[in-house]
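Quick one, T. Sequence first:
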Amino acid sequence: MSHSFPLSLSLKWPKIKKGVLGMVKKIALFLVLVGNSGMLMAEVGEESSNAQAQQTSYTERKTVETNLSESEVSESDGLSLKGISILGNADLIEEAREKSVLGGVSLDKPMAGSVLYREELELIKSVNSLTDLLTRVPGVSKTRNMRIADGGKNYTDNRVNGMRVSRTGVVGFVDETNTADIDRIEFINGPGSVLQSSYAIGGTINVITKTPPETPELRVSQEFGGHDLYRTEVVGGAKLSNGFGFTGNVSIKRDKGWRDRSSDDKDAFSFSLAGQPTERSNLMFRLEYIDDDALYPGTLTEAQWKKDWRQAQPGVYGRGQTTYLTPSLHFKQVLGESGEITLGLSQRKQSDTTFGNTSTFIAFANSISVSEETDTSFQAIYRQDFDLAKSRLYVGFEMIRGETDSKQYNNVYSIALALLGNFKKGALSTSGYNTTTDTHESPFVNYEFSPLDKLRIHAGLRADHIRFSVDDKTAANKDGKASFSKVVPKIGATFELDPNNLIWTSYAEGFLAPAVNTLLGSGDIGCKTAGCAGGKRGYVPAANLNPEAMKTYELGFRGYLNNAKLRYDVTLYKTNIIDMVLQRDCTAAEKLGPNGCYRMNVNGEVSAKGIETGLSYAATSWLDVGVSHTLAYTSYEKYKSGTVNYTGNSYNSTPKHHLNARLLFKPAPGWRSELEMDVESKYYLDSANTETYDRPNLYNLRTSYTAPAEQWSAWLHVLNLTDVKYGHRLSLSGTTRQYTSGYMPLTLRAGVAYNF
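Structure tokens:
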């Protein structure tokens, strides 16, 4: 495959080659063991005349579907989401344009993106999206964002059915949705369209949920796995006599986890009702509830990890209990012959209780933190199509308002008892008691037209108005307010090379406003002694910080080749972040100043550029090939911390190469077996670029069988097939290497599902 993937030349191919040969031998043995080698040859001969039909079916699943990015419900029946069909020499780009919506991933749009469809999600059966699922998506970083690997910044827009569910977000958001109710997941790399938030510097994750089926469905599945994993799912739905339909999806997971103190128990339920009140309107109501109770194993030093990589971090304890309740309503009305209005309303109530630590684990906090957060989102979009130049106009308004009440209580039990999991609320702590309000109001307009048959222009403006306020109820009384406004352009163009292939380019701006606690400081301001170390000293107020400003340039190639057997998507991008909020150590004089300090916030500059590639190839009727590759360069254009100048250095936690390759075998009717290889090049652990980590290659094998008529199915997954010892992600604390959670040895998962 190297001839079709020249971006990976600097990877350690001898190492990969040796691993691949071993995996091929294992696959050959597997095919013999399942007793399908003879059936495989017979199937190839029998279906050779139908090879094109098989390949068309595969490629059809990879094409872009109509989606709910505008609170959209299918115009045909209000219920189903239909994909683009490939018939003969159909103009796929034109078909995609007719079905696409603002902000959705589709073939005709001048923006980077990819989609994981239900079929692939059913194959993966993700337990942890960061390790099971997101490795397949080009551009996902090793920390919390897409493209920009920053562990403290939220550069990813989180949406469900096109509606924002949080003001800022991270890639782990996928696990905050009922996995039994996901139809597909759209990943938009970079700023996207005017519908995407200006905060979406890294990208957008849009979870599209299931809609009622045409015929009644009821499916029950039970999964078992190593380390006491149990997951039960019940999925159902039907049409009602009045033309409406409903879905109901339940997922119950109990996962003890391989590492000590790493359990995750999650109960999820969702219900939707959708249909057409009139022939020209669509309506959908959805309600989701999730209860998640997790224990966190913390981080290990390299010495601890080498001694026992299963142990939890000594001397700390972390547990988090979180509930999400999210009702949403989507409505669309067709106006005249070529207009429509779309309305959406969503509200997510999130309740969090944290015992001890759940994130940094630097020093144990013997406390109980409680927060109640409500994010209310509204969206209104009017679309009008015109015959002149095939033009389309969008005018819309999006708003999200969040209010968070936070309290922190002292634990009545001693640290020794707390480390055993004993917690009870005591007195309110002297810090961490406040109410924050965050409001984003964003009108936008977008106009697309075709001045030439093959050329299409997209031009849009998004005006963001953002207001912060903090009501600090502690003795420090660190109240504060801040507001920011910016008009952000997003412009792009596509040029059709032929009906199935195009080249595109785009330019977009964005910005991220500093949060109030960054602007005004946090913690115990004024403490100057060494005894204040360990997180008790606060950040120095830095109210003169500018918002982070972003400019992104993209060039892409996308389409189908070889009679639609090969789908390719290649994006070249460059993002400059000006006034990026970074942290620097205080000088000796600053530490003794009137505020005292141990760290300050300053504005720096960062540049991120690279190439993101996605390939899918229907090689034969029994073999599909998928490749995702990310080539990333992220560096400091300006960053000085104290007397140390990091300018020109590479950003930490950014592998130059990330390659994920899949071979999907279909040896006989109903049988599917996927071998996945995941490769990362070494990356820096620190801004000084003195320490690196080179993770071993990982292999996963997933096999499933679906009986005729799809009445029942079964699966077996072997994760970390070669049983290598690896770290999911490393960081550096001073001179000490730290291993974060997420890794595990060879692990088996098996399950069975039955359709009634």
